[in-house]
Design goal:
The protein is mostly helical and 119 residues long. It has a single domain, classed as Arc Repressor Mutant, subunit A. The chain has a two-stranded antiparallel sheet with strand order 1-2. The longest helix is centred in the N-terminal third of the chain and has 18 residues.
Length: 119
């Protein structure tokens, strides 16, 4: 079976635009939270159109998940200690010598009756 080597119609998708959207999304989540963040704000901050965002992701939540995973991959590369058990322990964050990840919850934290919970 021959491979289809035809390109897609239209302009090629830009890795630079994708990276800008992910960076803008991470910044906005940190500043205003997931619920308050809008696709318009992401587009404006990233310097792209909303159409660019919707060509790559179905909604702001999908962008947020990819931004989160992208940040996690940058901040915590896979450990390679030579032991699968130790690698898993470190990847799971149970090693007290490793720094804790600094990523806010995707939703603002609320206080109610002295208890802290996330929506």
């Amino acid at each position: 079976m021959a491979e289809d080597t035809r390109s897609r119609p239209g302009r090629p998708r830009s890795e630079q635009s994708r990276s800008a959207v992910l960076r803008a999304t991470s910044e906005l989540i940190n500043e205003v939270g997931l619920r308050a963040m809008t696709t318009d704000e992401i587009a404006t901050r990233a310097g792209v159109s909303k159409a660019t965002i919707y060509k790559l992701w179905p909604n702001k939540y999908a962008v947020a998940v990819e931004a989160f995973l992208s940040e996690m991959a940058k901040e915590s590369p896979d450990p390679d200690t030579g032991s699968a058990e130790e690698d898993l322990r470190r990847a799971a964050g149970s090693d007290p010598l490793l720094p804790q990840q600094k990523w806010p919850s995707l939703c603002p934290t609320h206080r109610q009756g002295g208890l802290t919970w996330s929506m």
